[in-house]
């Protein structure tokens, strides 16, 4: 009965297990269905996200397009306004500039009556009560008409409005008409307005023209005095001026330093002090290239006609330059025009404006920095500007050059250390060459003996002793147990063979070691001899250089 109950219970339990398995299977199917639903939902979400991204991109493009169209329309409208303001407020300024250029050209070809020039200039003067160029135009017209009183009054008024621009304009106009004395008086006024600590590269162009005689001969040296005054001001304003100039020109000379390792290969490969030798000899060898460089600058041909044309171009640029009062509107006009050119792209127009400003912006440095840059920079600086800079900075250049030569002089060695294959020896004048050769040979022979001792062994002797022993033993066995005697004779023959091969190999090793050391001694002695020969040559170069007067790199 107990067994029957147990069986019933087991059947019931089995049914329950089967039900649980079915339930688990159903649950698995349900989970799988949920996963499929989730995957479907994920696909839908991804599609929605993709649609949102596309919608956002379309919206951004539409927004940008609307901005571009609005910016383009705004630029077109504003451009009309700005140009109307320019014409209304500064149209007369433009007229003055064009008339001044016309007068200068008319005087060159003498095709316009003096009365016409005077009438036009006076009418323009009445219409531009503040512009500095208007009284300059009246002064030029009065000058042409020989009306000295009117010319002087007009000049006074022009100077009152802008003395610096008036001075350089009148100086350039006087140069065109070969009025040297008056030209230098105006240059003196212009130079007096310059600040040595805030100098433009454009102003340096006028100094360059002056030094190279484009303005004629300055008999009273008015401009020389100003330039020397500027240099003294810069020097006085900086306690480090002298040292910075010395360092600048020392560094400049280092460009010409030559590597002498190819010229002195034995020293380069064998001498410990070669770095110091190379530094000093390299500088000595660079003296001629440095001298040639500065002589080339000082004696460079200056094309007077080209320089005159450049100065005339500066005059035209000065006359055509917008007045400061115009600049805000002119810059706005340029920006709006660029917006139109770039079809409403304001960011591109702004970047273009910034790039142009970086190019046209005139760097302002102190005068010495401007002149130093003319020499040091590897650009298209004109030969005349380099020549001008050298003429005023020659003392500083010479001082830097002398420092460049002398700073490594004390490091030049009195003796050298020759290193060959682990051996080293010293010499100052090579008088101990025999001792050095003998020392090197003894050093190498000591190394040879050690290697020979290591190469020799007693294996051949051991093989010989074994062969003798087995040979005697085989003779004894030959009369008693002759098969065994044959075996021992074979062993004897093998030992004799091993003795021979070991002896041959050892003799070959010894021969190779001797050959190698013979070659090492020969090549080592050649290196020592080459080093000493080149050392004598180097010392002769140094002695000859130090006994000569210091080379004048700038006459």
Describe the structure.
The chain is flat. Residues 1-5 have low confidence and may be disordered. The chain has helices at residues 2-109, 114-127, 133-144, 148-176, 180-192, 201-211, 222-237, 241-254, 265-270, 274-298, 304-320, 327-341, 346-360, 367-376, 383-406, 433-455, 459-478, 482-547; strands at residues 199-200, 364-365, 416-420, 423-427. Among the domains are: 198-321 and 362-413, no CATH class; 422-547. 79% of the residues lie in helices and 3% in strands.
Q: Portion of residues in helices?
A: over 70%
Order of helices and strands: HHHHHEHHHHHHHHEHHEEHHH
Number of strands: 4
| Main beta sheet strand tally, sense and closure | 2 strands, antiparallel
- C-alpha Rg, in Å? 49 Å
Strand order of the biggest β-sheet: 1-2
The coarse overall form would be flat
- Low-pLDDT runs: 1-5
* Tally of separate helices: 18
Strand percentage lies at under 5%
Structural class computed from helices and strand pairing:
mainly alpha
């Amino acid at each position: 009965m107990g067994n029957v109950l147990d069986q019933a219970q087991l059947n019931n339990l089995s049914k329950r297990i089967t039900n649980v398995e079915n339930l688990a299977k159903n649950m698995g199917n349900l989970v799988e269905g949920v996963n499929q639903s989730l995957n479907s939902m994920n696909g839908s979400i991804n599609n929605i996200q993709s649609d949102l991204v596309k919608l956002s991109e379309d919206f951004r493009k539409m927004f940008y397009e609307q901005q571009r169209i609005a910016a383009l329309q705004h630029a077109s409208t504003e451009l009309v306004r700005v140009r109307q303001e320019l014409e209304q407020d500064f149209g007369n300024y433009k007229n003055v500039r064009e008339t001044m250029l016309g007068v200068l050209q008319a005087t060159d070809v003498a095709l316009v009556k003096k009365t016409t020039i005077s009438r036009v200039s006076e009418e323009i003067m009445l219409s531009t009560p503040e512009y500095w160029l208007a009284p300059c135009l009246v002064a030029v017209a009065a000058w042409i008409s020989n009306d000295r009183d009117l010319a002087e009054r007009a000049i006074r008024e022009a100077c009152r409005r802008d003395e610096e621009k008036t001075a350089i304009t009148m100086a350039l106009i006087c140069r065109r008409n070969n009025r040297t004395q008056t030209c230098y008086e105006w240059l003196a006024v212009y130079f007096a307005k310059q600040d040595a600590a805030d100098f433009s590269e454009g102003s340096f162009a006028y100094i360059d023209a002056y030094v190279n005689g484009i303005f004629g001969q300055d008999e009273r040296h008015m401009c020389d005095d100003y330039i020397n005054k500027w240099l003294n001001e810069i020097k006085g304003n900086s306690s480090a001026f002298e040292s910075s100039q010395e360092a600048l020109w020392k560094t400049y000379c280092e460009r010409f330093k030559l590597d002498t390792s190819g010229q002195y290969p034995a020293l380069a490969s064998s001498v410990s002090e070669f770095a110091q030798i190379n530094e000093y000899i390299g500088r000595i060898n660079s003296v001629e290239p440095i001298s040639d460089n500065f002589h080339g600058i000082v004696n460079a041909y200056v094309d007077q006609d080209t320089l005159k044309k450049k100065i005339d171009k500066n005059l035209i640029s000065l006359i055509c330059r917008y007045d400061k009062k115009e600049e805000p509107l002119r810059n706005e006009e340029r920006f709006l025009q660029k917006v139109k050119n770039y079809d409403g792209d304001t960011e591109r127009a702004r970047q273009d404006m910034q790039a142009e400003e970086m190019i046209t912006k005139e760097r302002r440095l102190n005068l010495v920095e401007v002149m130093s840059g003319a020499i040091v920079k590897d650009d298209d600086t004109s030969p005349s500007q380099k020549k001008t800079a050298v003429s005023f900075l020659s003392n500083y250049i010479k001082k830097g050059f002398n420092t460049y030569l002398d700073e490594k002089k004390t490091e030049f060695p009195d003796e050298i250390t020759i290193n060959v294959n682990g051996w080293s020896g010293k010499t100052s004048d090579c008088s101990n060459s025999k001792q050095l050769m003998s020392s090197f040979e003894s050093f190498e022979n000591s190394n040879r003996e050690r290697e020979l001792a290591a190469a020799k062994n007693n294996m051949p002797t051991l093989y010989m002793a074994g062969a003798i022993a087995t040979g005697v033993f085989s003779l004894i066995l030959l009369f008693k147990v002759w098969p065994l005697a044959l075996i021992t004779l074979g062993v004897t023959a093998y030992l004799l063979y091993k003795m021979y091969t070991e002896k041959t190999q050892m003799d070959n090793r010894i021969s190779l070691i001797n050959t190698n050391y013979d070659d090492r001694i020969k090549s080592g002695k050649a290196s020592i001899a080459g080093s000493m020969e080149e050392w004598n040559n180097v010392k002769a170069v140094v002695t000859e250089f130090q006994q000569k007067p210091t080379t004048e790199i700038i006459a």
